[in-house]
Amino acid sequence: MAGGCSGGRPLLSTARARPPQNRLTGPRQVCMTISRSDFHRNGAAVARVVRKKVSDSVLEELVRMFQAGELKAGDKLPNQNALAAQLGVSRASLRESLHTLAIAGVLEQRPGFGTVVRGPLPQDFAELFNLPLISDPKETIELVQARRYIEVANVELAVEHATEGQLAELDRLCREMAAAARRGDQQAYVRGDAAFHHLLARSTGNRFMEHLFLTLRRVMEQFIHESFRVLPRMLDRSLEDHRRICEAVRRRDRRRAVAAMTTHMHHIRTAMKNLYEITRTEPAAAPARRSASG
Questions:
Q1: Average predicted confidence (pLDDT) for the chain
Q2: Do residues 227 and 273 make contact, with C-beta atoms less than 8 angstroms apart?
Q3: Taking the complete model, does pTM exceed 0.85, yes or no?
């Protein structure tokens, strides 16, 4: 099917790896996701079964290539247009997959140069993108609560262990997020947000903290995008939160850093509750009329 996950074209070629002939095949899977129309008037979330996203299938294939040694450190990927065409997917689906690998530190996207493989795939990474999505308000709040403890611990450790280079990178990311906010580019802002928090996790010097961050971030991705779309004022508050976190970490002020991150997590929890409330109170769509032809 055109634009789908399967096709007869080779996947991709790299500077050192021969073009693999594998295709995005395998049994169809389903996942649980939510949309505004998936809620009853009483507020109970109803999970809707959908086919797995194209971007997840692309990600699975890229992960397989890492595990098989077909992608190695130093390899440069083809440009996104060529790679998307070879995979038979849209650039949007490809970008989402590359973004996930960039967050994990596997790929580095260099402006004006391209995407380069930085290092090997982290152990157990394959489990991160196969986690179930959450469609229940109570579970969502529990997820935010878990993230709060991890993020506060991360920022506390980052104050102590971050290198000067990491502090400079944190400041750069904060400036990029501000520029994205001024442009109204929510996708770029979310990418910067992910990179900011991942850098804090890396700055702890504790690989297990980084692994925990990646796990929770993947599950929360759906809510982050939806929150900025439905609650646009949340973006300004988020930017101010990140500025305060960045300033406190750069000054190595543990107390202020912990307070700033705690406030940020409180704002996220409030946004998640507001998002569910908006969805719960939205009137149900009127049923479509049947046409004369049936």
A1: 72
A2: no
A3: no
